[in-house]
Amino acid sequence: MGLSIDSIHSHLAWVNNAKKNTGVYFNFPIIADIDMKVSKLYGMVQPNEAETAAVRAVYFIDPKVKIRLIMYYPLNVGRNMDEILRVLKALQTSAEHGVALPLDWQPGDKVIVPAPSDLESMAEREKSDYEMVDWYLAKKEL
């Protein structure tokens, strides 16, 4: 869903204009936050910036309504949809498999197995087929 401090009429014009000029149709709900209550609550109006312009932000909120990640973009920098989709897949993979993901992880890459919490688990890990960087850092394929 989207949120903007503009009116619903501005949203309709924006969606129509984007479809007309780019062929892209934004078929998702857009909240008209004219009084900026939600924008201020979520930190989208930044100090020392214009009081009538919200920064661009992407929020990943899980099914339990917990904010998992916030990505802020200044007004003069466009968003990267490839990175937004990569992050979404990473959050879903981490939650589903109970693993961590290394720098620049892409779907299909190895994942990081949580560190052992006792000596028995550490000994089992050393016998596993994990890619062992060290006793506390091991990777595996999903």
Brief write-up:
This protein is of the alpha+beta class. It is 32% helix and 21% strand.
Structure, described:
- This protein has 142 residues and is α+β, with helices and mostly antiparallel strands.
- It folds into two domains: 1-79, Glutaredoxin (3-Layer(aba) Sandwich); 80-142, Antioxidant, Horf6, Chain A, domain2 (Antioxidant, Horf6, Chain A, domain 2, 2-Layer Sandwich), CATH 3.30.1020.10.
- Helix content is 32%, strand content 21%.
- Strands 5-7-6 form a three-stranded antiparallel sheet, with no helix packed on it. Strands 1-2 form a two-stranded parallel sheet. Strands 3-4 form a two-stranded antiparallel sheet.
- Helix 1 (8-22) links the parallel strand 1 (2-4) and strand 2 (30-32).
- The model has no long low-confidence stretch (mean pLDDT 90).
Strand content: 15-25%
Oligomer: single chain
Tell me the structural class: alpha+beta
Q: What CATH architecture of the largest domain do you see?
A: 3-Layer(aba) Sandwich
Mean pLDDT: 90
User: What's the shape?
Assistant: elongated
Topology:
Blueprint: E1 2-4, H1 8-22, E2 30-32, H2 37-41, E3 56-61, E4 67-73, H3 81-97, E5 111-113, H4 119-127, E6 131-134, E7 137-140
Parallel strand pairs: 1-2
Antiparallel strand pairs: 3-4, 5-7, 6-7
